[in-house]
Task: structure prediction
Amino acid sequence: MTRPAQAKTRPPGPKHRRRILLALVLAVALALGLMAAGGGAGTRPADPPASVPTAETTATSVRPSVASVRIDLGQPGPPVPRRFLGLSFEASVLPLIATYGRTGDLVNLMRSLGPGILRFGGVSADTRVAWSDPATPKPAWAAGVVHERDLLGIGRLARATGWQVLLTLGLAHYDPHAAARETAAARRALGPALAGIEIGNEPDAYVPHHLRGRGWGYPVYNGELRSYRTAIAKLGGAIPLAGPGVSGSSAFHAWAVPEVGGQRPSLLTGHHYPLGCHQTPPPSIARLLGEATRRLEGASLNRYMVVARASHLPFRMDEAGSVSCGGRAGISNTFASTLWATGYIAEAMAAGLAGINLQGSPFNCLGYSPVCATSPERLARGALGVQPVWYALLLTRGLVGDRPLPTTVSSRRARNLRVTAFLASGGSLRFVIVDDEPLGAPAAAVRLQVGSGFGSATVMALSAPSPRSRSGVTLGGGTVAPDGTWQASAGRRPIAQRGGIVTVTVPPSSGALVTVQPARLASPARPRPTRSGDRTAPASGRPRGPGASPPGVRPRV
Result:
């Protein structure tokens, strides 16, 4: 209520002035005391959480959302396979990639990931490129051909990098004898580097892609597959078969189960694109990084692995990308794709997959390709730059050989947070943390409940100015150099665990690889710089061992 006007004109007496002065002194003293105490006894943590900053994330008054992470050390899964990571290129660019064994940056780039699998396939294997030799003229339908000299170049690239090759043979244009001659040439050119062959790319989608008529289905495919294998065997023995290379997990059961029973391939394969290029509503960063997409992806991985486990055969996701049809500019070539791929690759490792190949084309820098050239001149000399998604491969390479651990994340607010845990052979724990929340959301204070058997930790941050960034991506403070090499920064100070808990604060739209050392080890030293070709995992010091996809109208999950 407003005081009457006449009361304002009456000056306070001496006694009243003393009371006002005393109240002001007490208020100032109380404020100074609270500042010195840091807000009150017990409110300031003895060891503040480590922060993983991004360029646009600054201190905020918004309190972080808290997530608690529990692991089960008693049930580690099998080790992540040595050749888990890989790249997949369109078969039509095989002759170009073959030249990069002698020139360019691809050798350095592939070496920086350790041993992997290089796959050639995609829609062009069935529609644009064919095998040609003196006995096999170029068919009228083909826009390009692959010769034996091209396979010799791929063999040179494989030897220079320590990678193996998975080769897709065209099936849409039925020609088992040409396929047999191509396989024989691949065997001569690649030797032990030939990991296997796939016959047909996404045969389950031949009808909607107008490559076969309505009578096409698994029975016809199975008969043609047998003819191919018979022709191949006559020219030099059996080659490991990979298949069926379906367009998504929804078709896997109908195609893989009978193939397992009738063909017994050495490797089961399938593809994954979380967003479809013709979807309604259209693809977006919010959808790519949303909780709904993550739930669908979990169900998709489970569908693949149910068949793989029942058949006791390994499964490899030999083609994967963010958006089908070659990707979507503004999504696939941004840091958002890095966050998606980091979380998805880690989850694929935890699910028990044999590996994953990220799809790409070296001349498409607007799509999902991990590497590409920005001009025809750079393309010709192999001067390939990395797209943001490449950093997901660099981060997850350090998990090869580790054993995934059952992981439970509990939080009421940090719901769009992905955490995957692994047990390293030396006893260390590794946590891949991805916060998919948009910028402006509260940071996530992730409480890793590791127990008293573990000591301090180190953090390698994955960050960029924003999810839409096409540049400015850093991993461990370092960026990939023009020649394909990468060097992490000196690292952060160790983070001590308190009461068996290591707390790391991860800002929205960023990620981190956290390594927690066993308590019996001394506090970890600052990690030495890691360069391409090193046999050392990032931030751990543990030694290591030696264009466009077919259109789709819905996500391939």
